[in-house]
Specification:
Blueprint (H helix, E strand, L loop, with lengths): L2 E2 L5 E2 L16 H7 L5 E5 L2 E6 L2 E7 L9 E4 L6 H4 L7 E2 L11 E4 L5 H13 L34 H7 L2 H7 L2 H7 L8
Antiparallel strand pairs: 1-2, 3-4, 4-5, 5-6, 6-8, 7-8
Helix pairs in contact: 1-3, 4-5, 5-6
Length: about 190
Amino acid sequence: MTRRSRSGRVAPADDVFAARKRKPVPHEFVLEALAPLGPETRPMFGCLAVYVEDKIVLVLRDKPAPAQDNGVWLATTQEHHAALRPEFPSMRSIEVLGSGVTGWQVLPAESPDFEEAALRACALIRAGDPRIGKVPGEKRKRSASPPPGAPAKKMAAKLPAKKAAAKLPARKAAAKLPARKAAAKLPAPGRRR
């Protein structure tokens, strides 16, 4: 409904300022089954990631293409696949993640036992089954920087003596040079170069 202001201008309808409609939650029954744990959801690659405490446990997907990967994605590792397969016979690797076996597995929405399998996965998560769930970033290794608290490597140990002395700050370099050369290289106290 449009309204006219005192100046005679047409005011926009109230529905223009209404909050943007959210996408429906895919496979909402999964969140209802996990409700006792207080799951948290976050968008992830156009899907909905489900976290319980610090672990990502599931991803809920219902997208138009590729439809074969719609369903409930289980956050697991390859070492647990064999143990989970008897409980989830329709479980398979996710095709959009590339060829081969992936850590993530999907309970396909197109399988006849989809809801039953998804609810079974929720029951395992509620029971604290260690086969489902990953702490994000747990396996990442940082090669560029040392871990916190680790001593920094010194470049001087790997370089020949002359090059090492050139790389070190003036005072440290002076300690490595003979006494006369060191005195000549250091600025006198109180004087700037």
